[in-house]
Fold these 3 entries.
Entry 1:
Amino acid sequence: MVNSLSLRRRSAVLTAATLVAGLMSVATAPPVTAAPPVTAADLNGDFDSTAVGTVPAGWSVTGETGDVTVQDVQGTVDRSLRLRDTSTSAPVTARTSFGSTASTVVAGFRLRAAQTSATIGVHLDGAGGHDVTVAMGTDGHLYTYNGTEYVDLGTYTPGRWYDIRVVADPSSGTADLYIDGSRRARRLSFRTADKTLDALQAGISTPSTGTAWLDDVRTTTESGPQGWSYLGQVGPRPALQIGASELLVGAETLDRDYTSYPAFSPYLGKLGATGVRLQGGWAKTEKTKGVYDWTWLDRIVDDARAQGLKPWIQLSYGNGIYSGGGGSGLGGQLPSSDEALKAWDAWVQAMVNRYKDRVTEWEVWNEPNLAGIPAANYTDFYIRTAALARAAQPGAVVFGQEAGIDVTYAQNFLTLLSQKGGSGLLGGISYHPYNADPDDAWTYQQVAKLKTLVDQYAPGAVIRQGENGAPSTSGSFGALGDTDWTELSQSKWFLRRVLNDLGRNVSTSVFSISDLNYPGKVNTKGLLRTGTDKSVRYAKPSFYAVQALASVFDSTLEPLLGYRWSAAPATALTVQAFANRTSGRQVVGVWSATGKPTETNDRTPTDFTFTGGDFSYPVYVDLRTGAIYDIPAANWSAQNGTYTFKGIPVYDSPVLIADRSTIKF
């Protein structure tokens, strides 16, 4: 007896086969509406600036009935490419050619179906037809192919956008597929024998009628080391699987509703960071004097913990319902009146008591030096707050805080803290070192000074990089917004900052999980691009870059301070080395440290010598793309613990020379 599930699967396969036949037949046919090809590097379509009712530049469309045009998306301020098929005798398709390439193609797009009664497919094509497919079937299931084999990816919901990413490597004829930040299939075999890719095509199949929407189409080509075997992609691991690491992610401004937790929550644990910075939001919690509504924060703390992240809560800002209640946003002043300070005390006690079974790390105020708060005033306020936290939770770790790395401010704070007998209350100091060059020597000179001061005045306390990021666009609000940035340079910046910190044994936080929508302006430092309604449009390349880094640099690795190395050519390079705590096998990150990250990926073949190395099977990993390559035997040698690597492609984004045992596929 055949059950209904089997019938659905069989139907889906037959429908999918029809889709393939229908769309393959038009893959090489003259299009009804043609447009010149664009390069993969230039294909970046959000369609928002395209006139409604037109075919976007660079796209060709077909269809006997129905249409493919840019349309406003109802209920939003967004425009997308709408495919509408009203015929059961021919498909409707939209196709853009980016030129034939043998390099790895990374394609990102958003896809939405208006119904579950049509078969909708998006494909990466070569000369032989559809090489990689992701589709929505008439049985309500997403699916793909491994060669000719149908692969079920679970159900989909009509009217919901899906954030899809395909990494397709022609040299190996394989692809990895991601949906909403999660890898759903790996090493899928191409459907043809193609060794090049040249186009992206979307369509609704011949027997179906219906409507689909396509948006945020982005394709790039990524060249690997010539002649080196492609082994696959770094396997992303969620926070629950990683367990512990020194990597945190920022989820700030939820207290002021500049981001939406329900929107970015589905991506939070998938990133792989094991801690999350939150702002406690006195003004959001106490809107009526003496009445606390913890509903908003309860949901966030519990969900983050369920996803494997340890919350770190900042006790801030002020509250305007009290006279002298302090500022309730960036640059806000401390509470000052007797009434406000008593209310602050009550809120801190209530906060710590409520979450002490779930939260152990706290931070007092945000960037007091940026707000012009004298160190003496901040010290008194810190002692007041930390003492309350420790009374409610004796094991609480309470951080002091400052903007930048203000050594003078920190020294004044630590000196006064010691004089007032409060050094024992200090669990650490967090700093926010915004600069365009994540390898800036001055920055880490200041970090070293800060650590020396903390060790002197509060032995046992730590330092933490508590908030740092780079925008992904020009004109972003906030720090570094006066400099030009793209999603490429943002990705490089994050990787360099985090590895510089981890290599110095400093825990570090990525700012931020999501773009921040301030009134009338956007801070684009997020790993996720959002719309004006704070919904997530897609995971940026920086999300996947940090996701790959998080997968590798967990608590099983320790930094190797003072690692001995040399390189030729002896250009400006950064090298950060790590070893597995059990096996001793090593991971060495290298990159060109030539200032602010560039918008090019030109690589320089570089020879390295590592004294005291430890590798059994070394591989080359480009953290930005996640690509893993075999290092040929001719390119490395070892003698008495000295390892030599020749012709390693190096650029201004971290690549790893790593023992294969340290990399998760």
Entry 2:
Amino acid sequence: MLTRISLCSLLLSLLCTCDRATNSPAPGVSNDETGHQNHLAGEKSPYLLQHARNPVDWYPWGEEALDKADEENKLLVISVGYAACHWCHVMEHESFEDSTVAAVMNESFISIKVDREERPDIDDVYMSACQLTNERGCGWPLNVIALPDGKPVWTGTYLAKEQWMDVLTQFRKLRGENPAKMEQYAADLTQALQERNRFAGGAGEGEALTEEEVNTMASLLLDDIDFDRGGTQGAPKFPTPTLYEFLLTEYFYSGNKRSLEAVTTTLDKMAGGGIYDQLAGGFARYSTDADWKVPHFEKMLYDNGQLISLYARAYQVTGYERYAEVVRQSLEFVESKLSSPEGIFYSSLDADTEGEEGLTYVWQEEEILQSIPEKDLAQAFVEYYSITEGGNWEGKNILLRAENGDEIARKYDFATEADLRKGLKPASDKLLVLREKRPQPGLDDKALTAWNSLMISGYADAFRALGTEEYRQRAVEAAAFLRNHSMESDGRLYRNYKDGEAGINAFLDDYALFAQACVDIYQITFDESWLKTANQLIEYAELHFYDNVSGLYNYTSDLDPALVTGNVPVNDQAIPSGNSVMARVVYQTGILLADDAKKQRAGTMLANLREPLIKNGPRFFANWGRLYIDLLQPTYEVAIMGADAGAVRDQMSREFHPNALFLGGDAEGSLELLTNKLIPEQTTIYVCLDKVCQLPVTDAAKALEQLNSPD
């Protein structure tokens, strides 16, 4: 089996230059000024359209490009990136806008541009190849040399112009002099990819779940936590919300204060760091350092949707007002910058403004002092947000909260740090107005079903925690738009919506996350149509994605053309895997619909991941860890019936209850679990387990007592 392949063993001299990365501009002719556009001109993706006037004759992924490569027997250049990617922009400027580079690519290669957010299936194939063949790690832009049939031969990330030209020249030469060597290498690498993506399930099926194993999982994860600075050890630091969702759930059942400390330390440090926009709310993609200080300035919808859910749940657990403040402010950011007129959500804001990373967000001390006329207020702002004359980052200042916030508050006659923040809000608002007048980062205005679903769940969780009616309305509005515009009557979904059109056959995470969002909306509305939609999505995915051999779901539908290798996604990363999300939502709908087959399906899926989860811990399987707890601990059906069912549900939902699913309404409806539970002129609460209910009560507090102390 091919394990890790050193590229220099294939082409001895090719990557001798691979460590000479530079960010200096390359000479040459830049963007085509003749009005000529390449084959990307008709695309919807903002990222692809950014390259539509490159002199490189880019094609989108599809039969036209692949057939042309086959007919002309040319190698493929496959370049994968996304609109908010800083180094993607750098390589475009240095190489893809350069006429000399373009001439080589156009003469000897068929060049394909891929938006990884639109086509994560393609990105996964070639990122997996990169991980197999590169010792130094992989990222974006992801550049691939492949045979005409798409089998990869070489992968790499950002390269300066001279390095990229070396790669092109060497492969053009090798293709002419030794094509058999190249084809054998591609065959070996493709076989390795297929073996890597061939998931063998079934380990541990039928074994009892134990609290001891959950404790072991938690211990393994806690060993990775940086308890001084939050997050996992080292740098860069990524938020990875699912890790802390697992720890919050584990804490709920075990009372393990170390788990809660890991969560609160991380959330406190993130909310105070540069990764959090101290003026407008919202989180950047990650921190380049170990202190959450210097962000990679791009802001992604999927991060913010998940982090809003996490902070909302942490507020339910702790009552820390700062967490509620982060939720409110971050939702204001989403409404201001990532919301479309139709009511759905855009994908991201760029890391760069006018070619400079972070230009919109950083400050000089003098401009802050001049913008806030009240001297004491200005000085307090400067101290609290760590502003210095020389700058706290590359001669400029990133706003981040000082560690001694309470001390600064007392210095300026505020009782607490929270009071200081409130006192500084007029100054913050003034600076935000000033910042809005600057050049702004680019917006990727495509709406992805999976990412919108995370944001819908974020609004639903914010409503549960804070009770703000507008949050419920926004969740319903966005979900209704997806159901009406990105979903067919048979349950088929589209991944992308832009300029009034839905397109691209959806992937597993689109189905799983939208189904989860629908279940979340059902629980805050008691509108059964959302539960029916969730079930329809699950049934469609079972028909077109489920693999009977592995007992899991493929990432791509059986309606899509096959790539060089398939994928059964199981790792929970920046976004939890489609399989772990699907397993949890199948379990939840199984309970709400009284469908034991669905509950059994979830257990079978978990059994497939039990061994790696217990052996390695939840670092890359955190959502599976949550499912493990779901199946180990009792999950109660809380049925609320009567005219005031909604108000009682909202009251009970203020608390964090991962052990409960809520259902009900002012009529019995069609759900089996609600049959014969409506009592005229009375709102009644039933706390049930496996359809067996405790004594019905009419008071939410008593129902919570039953839920918290079922014995």
Entry 3:
Amino acid sequence: MKRTFLAAALIAALPATRAIAAPADAGQSLDPVIVTATRTAITVDDALSSVTVITRDDIERLQPVSLVDLLTGLPGVTLTQAGGMGEQTSLFLRGTNSSHTLLLVDGVRVGTVSAGLPAFEQIPVEQIERIEIVRGPRSSLYGADAIGGVIQIFTRHGHAGEGLVPSLSVTSGSRHTMGGQFGLSGGSRHAWYNLSLGGEYTHGINACRMGAGTVFAGCFANEPDSDGYRNYNALANAGYRWDGGTELAATYLRSRNFVYFDGAPYGNQALNQQQVAGTRLSFRPLSFWQVTLGAGQNLDKATTYNDGTYVRYSDSRRNQASWQNDLTLADNQLLTLGTDYQLEHLSSDTGYLASRRQDTGVFVQYQGTFGRNELQASARHDHNGQFGNHGTGALAWGYRLDHGLRLSASVGSAFHAPTFNDLYYPYGSGNPDLKPETSRSAELGVAQQGEGWNWALNAYQTRISQLITLDANYYPRNLSRARIRGLEGQLGLTLAGWRWQGYLTLQQPRNDDGGPNDGHWLPRRPERTARIDVDRRFGRFGIGATFNAAGARYDDLANAHRLGGYATTDLRASVAFASHWELEGRLANAFDRRYETIYYFNQPGRSWYLTLRYRPGS
């Protein structure tokens, strides 16, 4: 890890700023409040885990056209995409598998039952109000799928007492890209609501290139055409808070898209639908006792075609419910007890040996502050209907020094059950003998926050037993051991009106099973990534740039297919030309760099976008 320590020194020289996120918001007088790290409301500064927060203001400042644009380069985050906008996307958090990150949308667990992957590419960025990214194991609070961490997306919503507020954006860009969103939100003294419709279309790029001298390499098809994408989405949410503090809220998000890809004769078109519905009731039976009841459903449908001819379908749904009790034992002493239930169901015409399973979990968490010391401890027991009982736990400690400096240390365990695709996918591509994955992680952190600046370093190690991966024949199997070491750094600074933000991730995602690939890198995880954002406003005008860089990675366990490192630069500008109206312009990949995050799959070259936005309150 010599390069790790060298990089730690280099981080100190980066002109970075107030993180989009944590550990602090340098330009704000109050720390943002988060709920994902502990399932309770705490400030970012009180979190003993590594947290990144993205707000609606950040989204509009950075001008992303997709969730992939927004998340790329953040600490611990690696994204791969099989082509351009709308193509299948995978997120690797802290070097763990793409199925090891739990995605929540307004508290509802999201991800296909078949493959266990959240469809990040299908979530419209214009419907997002806020994102919380918590890195590190969280199975002790959320159960399976949280080996790498948890990402929670909060959809746009209204505010009590604000009256009727419209919102509008219209986008045009390269490759016949068009998009738009219109919404109405508001509220009275006790209630709030939001209704919003959106859509986007792009002619796209050729998703997959033919392998030179290799028949059907990469995507196993030679289809040199543009792979387009269109999406229609709708969002509705509402809530009511009574004078006594009782609160009832509900949310509904639907995203329907049609995407072309390269994969004939097994399919080159897909009609997908994501639906998230949930409700939550919170009340206090006693002054020290808060109860939260939640229920929700995630629906994921996919129908595949080949040149318009039906091929197959998959209908995945997950029903879920939770009961949480927060007990205030004394000042700065909180005990949380709860239970979660989920029922997974998969319907498909490709034939699975099993299509249903359920999981019930009970958890407990304690949070306490003793002078300069902070303590968090949690434990959970899950019963999986297919793989039996699993226990997980976590322990975190923090110590506050003078001048805003804080030290932290934590350990935690997690697990992940094989998905239905891992076990039973037809045509000989499943392995019913797979074992569940388990992990143990440890982390050390140091952070400091000042007036207009902040910095943080977090070093971690995760050991995973029975890691599920694909061999050279795309057959899933368990690796007995894998070891991931990493260092994340971020700094923030506002200087002479310029707002700088910088992130650096160094990691060693290593196969450690003693077999023929022992010591090789796990597929599709780069050894290092970096990102710098810089922005400045001059009255009505704003300018900014984002620099992203990623080191080399490999696409296979044998490390035979190397994907070179790359760096891209995005430029942006905006002008507020009338009251509440703003025109935004973005030049993505300004220097037209060619690169791949998956072997043989193309990424967009230079692209431009113009957005007209109505911003109430601006």
